[in-house]
Amino acid sequence: MRQAGRYLPEFRAMRVEHEFFKICRTPELACEITLQPIRRFELDAAIIFSDILVIPQALGLEVLMVPGKGPVFPDPITVPSDLDRLEADVDVSVKLKYVCDAITLTRHKLEGKVPLIGFAGAPWTLMSYSIEGGGSKTLSKAKKWLYAHPTESHQFLKILTRVITEYLIQLVIAGAQLLQVFDSNAEFLGYDLFMTFALPYLQEIATKVKAGLKSRGLAPVPMIVFAKGANYATRELSEIGYDVVQLAWTVKPEDARKEANPSVSLQGNLDPCAMYAAPSVISQLVRQMLERFGTQKLIANLGHGVYPDFDPDHVKAFIDAVHSHSEQLNAG
Fold this sequence. Notes:
It is built from 15 helices and nine strands. The protein is of the alpha/beta class. The strands form two sheets. It has a seven-stranded parallel beta sheet with strand order 1-4-5-6-7-8-9. Strands 2-3 form a two-stranded antiparallel ribbon. α13 links the parallel β7 (244-246) and β8. α6 (97-110) packs parallel to α9. It is globular.
């Protein structure tokens, strides 16, 4: 999950001066924002400040971050012939060098305090944004492609998969110590569509990233997959080569443990809105979550991101409760 954000006053101060994607494209600014939550909280890892939509940008699509609205594609992909507009053979080591530079700079600034996570959006999620032109309540335009243009949908997904794979490899070369793939729009797909248009490409990314690192003489790094809302596919997600499966808050911990391959770790999954509770209640909820998951092979986290109106003190209460209750439960 993204750690930095509008809930932090120091982040808001930087956003007054700098446009969102300018921050992403300026390694010094991205590094500074990555470090902000690390300075505030006793976190166990840092996640680079970037955005999943840098990949559509690298493919030649314009993406704007509009205040109060979110990401907007002024000229989205609307018909199959629009795929010809994509720079399918883009060299991400050049086009997205700014993210790699931010990774390298942040690794140095962290001085080994915590590991650094790099991330990318999954093919289906990036395809759906590119077709919808931004966020959507139904993703009906993107899902129409899956039914009306299945061949071209696979063509688009294959282009994205190749670029995402090489991008993730470049992030590790730059210094990322873990990788996470976000399929944020998986929740709009039923089981059959997910198994056809999402899961195979998630698997290909995991397989080819690890093979690509090995071919370059680099050790594989742990990989996390988060297919938000794909609660029907916990078992399948745990068997495609990722080391960790992130769970949304709508998943019962007991069910996830039962369905997931025992070789993988789970991540999650407290309801983010629990951060609106009193710190004492947050502590109780954290303990319940840890008792239900068990403290082994678990990365305690929220079940989605941090919302703009969260009180940083409540986020701190969550993090501190994870540490204190874990210690107590592990001590028996």
